[in-house]
Amino acid sequence: MHPSVMDALLCVNKDHAVGYGDDPWTAEAGKKIKEVFSPAYCEPLFVFNGTGSNAVALQLVTRPYHLIICAETAHIYVDECGSPARMTGCQIRPVATPDGKLTPELVRPYLKNFGEPHHSQPGAIYISQCTELGTVYTSAEVKALTELAHAHGMYVHMDGARLANACVALNCGLKEITVDCGVDVLSFGGTKNGLMLGESVLIFRPELAKEAAYIRKQSAQLSSKMRYLSCQFTAYLKDDLWKKNATHANAMARKLYDVLHTLPEVRFTQKMESNQLFLTLPRTVIDELLKSYFFYFWNEAANEIRLVTSFDTTEEDIDAFLATLTAVMKRT
Question: Domain 3-240's class?
């Protein structure tokens, strides 16, 4: 956790407060979110975690007879134990992509069977910003997808678990890559950028908010002690803490990349655009590194791993990792 977030939690941990969001801290957080994203209309729903935020958001924009289109690497398809499919009742249609990003050309083949009762009806497009492969959608790319979806009466849900890192990579604000691009509902996350827990589902269309309170409760995402979730977002948005944290994380990833890409044993499998690096190394090297560092295999059969930097990664951390890697390569 970032110290400012911890301070915010300590500040609200005084006396008693009305539960379930009827407290001044939740009101303050909601006001701040609306100022940043959309003073015109923005309804925030604070929830416990990323999987919960995705499940709630997708229930808002679909009915069980709908089809949700996403990249084959999408978090809702690969990493959430089927929760979004179970909670929505929808069929989730994965689309193969080279970089984790959907395009209108990739989506169009699945925009069919409208009005045909034998088939699931295309209802929503799900995208991640940043993607699960560390790549970033530009504003033009997001707009192209939202325009396509809206032309077919569909909604777009953006999973913004790493939204801050994408904004820093694009040198844009939170509103510019979401509301201004036509995104209908956003999972606004911060646990990957300094928060302790919690996310906020941001609804940008009034018609989607009508059932939101009931869907959140039924999804087991309504916190009785709401202030401990909401106050973190006030701290996160104050003085652009989100941006400072993500800027540092991205810079540390760049520092790591600048050395790794010069090594002949390293092959990058995705463009370096945020704070995630996807690369291959000889398996003997990976096994030795795992004795000192924890990281995930992305594709173990291909010896592909993922390295991620964070808001508190230091230059010393990077130097130590590179020194260990150099020593391991000399031994193997």
Answer: alpha beta
